[in-house]
Amino acid sequence: MDSFAFIAAGFGVGLIVGLTGVGGGSLMTPVLIFFFGIKPHLAVGTDLLFAAFTKLGGTVSLARQRLVPWRVVAQLCAGSVPASLVSLWALDHLGADSAAAQRIMTSTLGAALLLTAAATFYKAVTFSKAAQSRRLEPAGPEEAAAAMRPRHWSLPVLLGAVIGSLVTFTSVGAGAVGVTVLLLVFPMLPLPRIIAADISYAVPLTLVAGLGHATMGSVNWPMLALLLTGSLPGIWLGARLVTRAHERLIRAMLSVLLVLAGAKLISI
Question: Which of 77, 144, 200, 226 satisfies CB 3.0 to 4.6 Å to 138 for a cystine?
């Protein structure tokens, strides 16, 4: 095991997660499968706990900056966590290391990466600086409450459930897809708070899903420790820079890489 390579991979993914809100799973899971030769069920299970601890570090940093809209986080968790538990039950019933489960994971992961690529590219093209500037910080308590009001009360719960199932099977979906959902469902919420909400609600979701995978033996603990060694300082740095980063070019480049990875996984 190349310890330095795992640490460097963790740092790079953590930095991008903190800067853009693109999920660690959409980046780390393909890296583990293609570059390190990790089996899909171990890559997914390990990455879920990697994401939980990595995003916990980002959440602490964002909470200290008072950027996390906790009401939005609670609404998403109301759908995503129960859906994750149901998905874990189904995966355990099927057998996480079975050939059928591996095939479902790789195919679903490929489709999830393509969806993430589309969401990433959509944000890179649609949400210019001018568009982002229209999402101003609320001027007072009433405006702040209005910004955390969804288009419809059921949307965060229902879409959270979809993302919860997707994340449990693939470790992908809580990043770029989650950010896009938040942008559309909470149209008045400022972009830094959108990213903060996305990172924060993913902590309980990935922790529940990751611990569930751990009970099925789908976590490589030494590899997880190395990835976290790099990722925690990476996401801390990214979260500190989130309000000043110019991210459209980064998102456009990431979308191309995700398309390539998703297409390759589907063709396996």
Answer: 144
Short-list 108, 87, 16, 84, CA closest to 54? 16
Alpha helices in the chain (DSSP H): 3-20, 24-34, 40-64, 70-94, 99-126, 129-133, 141-147, 154-170, 176-185, 191-215, 221-241, 248-267
Domain edges within the chain: 3-267
Q: φ and ψ at 217, to 5 degrees?
A: 75, 25
Interhelix angle 70-94/154-170, nearest 10 degrees: 40
pLDDT in tens, 94-144: 887 787 777 778 888 888 778 777 777 766 666 555 555 555 555 566 666
CB 59 within 8 Å of CB 203: yes
Q: What is the pLDDT of residues 62-97, one digit of tens each?
A: 899 888 999 999 999 999 999 999 999 998 888 877
- pTM for the model stands at 0.79
Give the count of alpha carbons within 13 A of 136, CB side only: 5
Which of helix, strand or coil describes residue 99? Answer: helix
**Which residues 6+ apart lie within 8 Å of 124 measured at CB?**
247, 248, 249, 251, 252, 255
> What letter represents residue 72's amino acid?
V
φ and ψ at residue 75, rounded to 5 degrees: -65, -40
